[in-house]
């Protein structure tokens, strides 16, 4: 039997994609919001497409805030947007 590919939904565009195509944004137990490059960090995660446009959509439609269950400060939003390029 072929190995099952883990799928995740982008909180920006709402498309289902392979987990490895998406980037995980996490809220750590210390309430810090970070990009999780490894996909293995502890904390509540939300997935976004690997581009700044989808990230902006996720922030605008509050999908990211809903998934992480917390408000995201503007400086954090700008930092993550820069990291995504």
Word description of this protein:
There is one protein chain. By secondary structure, the chain is α+β, with helices and mostly antiparallel strands. The protein is built from 3 helices and 5 strands. It has a 3-stranded antiparallel beta sheet with strand order 4-3-5. The protein has a two-stranded antiparallel sheet with strand order 1-2. Helix 1 runs antiparallel to helix 3. It is globular and about 45 Å long. It starts with 6 loop residues before the first strand and ends with a helix.
Summarize the structure.
With 85 residues, the protein is an alpha+beta fold.
* Radius of gyration over C-alpha positions, nearest whole angstrom: 12 Å
Alpha-carbon distance between the termini?
39 Å
**Reading side by side through the largest sheet, how are the strands ordered?**
4-3-5
Put simply, the count of helices is 3
N-to-C SSE string, H for helix and E for strand: EEEEEHHH
Quick one: biggest sheet? 3 strands, antiparallel
Structural class: alpha+beta
**Beta-strand percentage?**
25-35%
Uncertain stretches = none
- Gross geometry: globular
Labels describing this entry:
alpha+beta; two-stranded antiparallel sheet; 3 helices
List the helices and strands and how they pair.
Layout: E1 7-9, E2 16-18, E3 22-27, E4 33-36, E5 44-49, H1 52-60, H2 63-68, H3 74-84
Antiparallel strand pairs: 1-2, 3-4, 3-5
Helix pairs in contact: 1-3
């Amino acid at each position: 039997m072929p190995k099952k590919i883990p799928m995740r939904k982008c909180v920006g565009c709402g498309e289902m994609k392979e987990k490895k195509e998406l980037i995980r944004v996490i809220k750590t137990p210390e309430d810090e919001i970070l990009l999780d490059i490894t996909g293995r960090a502890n904390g509540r995660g939300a997935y976004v497409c690997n581009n700044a446009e989808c990230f902006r959509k996720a922030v605008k439609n509050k999908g990211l805030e809903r998934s992480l269950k917390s408000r995201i400060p503007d400086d954090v939003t700008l930092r993550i947007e820069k990291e995504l390029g």
